[in-house]
Each structure stands twice: as C-alpha cells, then as structure tokens.
Specification:
Number of helices: 8
Bound molecules: adenosine-5'-triphosphate
Helix content: 25-40%
Order of helices and strands: EHEHEHEHHEHEEEHH
Number of domains: 1
CATH architecture: 3-Layer(aba) Sandwich
Strand content: 15-25%
Structural class: alpha/beta
Shape: globular
Radius of gyration: 17 Å
Oligomer: single chain
C-alpha cells in the first residue's frame, strides 16, 4: 500500500487541502491519504480557533466523497497540551505499517519552507518520502534553502509538468525522495477563510458545502 500522512490544523479544512490530496493521490498512485488534524501545532503559537473535535468533524465531512481519504486521530491532542511533533507521529505510524507499505508525508510548500524549525528536522526528512505541493510564488531555490543540516538536492529522478522527483542526500550518504507537485497554485488559505466568515463575506467556492453548513450550525469563526 502507498499511504500518505497529511497533517494540518484544518481550521477549517478547505478545497485547497482536497485539491492537493487529489493531485498527490493521482500522481503518486496513493492508496490512502490520512487527514490528521493536529492537537497542538508547535509552530502555531496561538493555536487553533476551532476545537480538535470540530476540526475532526469538519475533516470527516470534507473528505466524505473521496474513498481514498481517511480521517485520522494519529495527531490528536496529547496529555498536558504537549506539542505534537510530526517526527513522533510519523515514526509511530511507520511502526504500525507493513514493511512493504510505502509511507509519504504530504505538505504544502509554505510548511516545507519552515522545515528547519521542525523537531529533529534532519532526521524527519529520512523517515519517509515527502510530497510537497507548491503554493503561489514557490521556487526551487527556496526549497534548497529550506533543507536542514547540509542536506542537498541531488539527481532529478523524474520530471514532468505535474511531478518532479528529486533525490535528497545528507553528508553521510543517507538518501530520501522529495516529490514536488510544481503546478499547484491554489490561492486558498484557512486564515483567509476565517477572516471572510468573520466579515460575513462569501466563502462557498473555497469550502465544501457540508463544511460551510457545519461552520454556521456551530457558530464557528463568526467573530
Ligand atoms: P492557515 O491559513 O490557518 O495557516 P492553511 O490553509 O495553510 O492554514 P493548514 O491546515 O495549516 O491550512 O494546512 C495543512 C497543510 O496543507 C500544510 O502543509 C499546508 O502547507 C498545506 N496547504 C494548505 N493550503 C494549501 C494550498 N492552498 N496549497 C498548497 N498547500 C496547502
């Protein structure tokens, strides 16, 4: 099985998340994508607006039409509001899989650019192969600068309009693969959606209808 972990705040989940997960599924031949709302994201100091339970409920509604997508509790809040570190979650997930399964971590380019700040980043990048969805303005130079601890981009393994596969290597010779989805340019962000809802502006092309209905029913993001 080819499985991707897709972590995020999902506050709320939006059509940008669904589009990158669909593109990754189709281009990397994924069997399952695990949408895992995070309990406490270490790099988002002010936390999330909606509770973990609401974010999980919205994720379930958003992915309902997609059989390959699953909501996952893997990154649920930890006791004592401890931060959820992606490396711990991925190592736990990897240990639960069959040795022949291929694990990927799907992230957006903006998150990838903060990689150096992630817990044990130089180790994390070798836990599984990464899939990075471009965001408007993202360049390969930025990607190179975001690589931690002398890890360097090496050979291009495959290149097309839809997928660039790179080999990454550290000074000790350890290798991993980075799969870039270069043509994704979704202008959608949860921050903009929360602001639009608070201002009473329309959001319908950006959010699945079921998620929007849930937001209004629960009174989320209204102020
Ligand atoms: P916020 O605006 O609150 O920071 P967000 O819209 O970036 O939220 P997250 O839940 O933080 O959404 O994102 C989860 C993952 O999805 C992250 O890796 C993020 O980079 C990626 N992502 C979100 N929106 C897009 C998008 N429009 N294009 C590409 N990647 C995206």
């Amino acid at each position: 099985m080819r499985i991707a972990f897709f972590g995020g705040t999902f506050d709320p989940p939006h059509c940008g998340h669904l589009k990158i997960a669909q593109a990754a599924t189709q281009r990397l031949h994924l069997d399952r994508v695990l949408f895992a709302p995070v309990g406490h994201q270490p790099l988002k100091l002010h936390g999330s607006s909606a509770s973990f339970e609401d974010r999980m409920a919205m994720v379930k509604l958003a992915i309902a039409p997609f059989p390959a997508f699953e909501a996952s509790e893997l990154d649920a809040p930890l006791p004592g509001r401890r931060p959820n570190y992606t490396i711990d979650t991925l190592l736990r997930l990897k240990a639960s899989l069959h040795p022949h399964d291929d694990l990927f971590c799907l992230i957006g380019a903006d998150s990838f650019l903060t990689l150096k700040d992630w817990q044990r980043a130089a180790e994390l990048i070798f836990v599984c192969n990464f899939i990075v969805a471009a965001r408007p303005g993202f360049t390969l130079d930025q990607m190179d600068r975001a690589l931690p601890c002398n890890i360097q981009r090496q050979t291009i393994l495959q290149q097309s309009k839809e997928l660039i596969r790179f080999c990454l290597r550290n000074p000790q010779g350890k290798q991993t693969e980075l799969n870039l989805l270069p043509d994704i340019h979704e202008e959608i962000s949860a921050t903009a959606i929360r602001a639009a809802i608070a201002a009473g502006q329309p959001t319908s092309p950006l959010l699945p209808q079921s998620v929007l209905a849930y937001i209004y029913q629960r009174g989320l993001y209204q102020s």
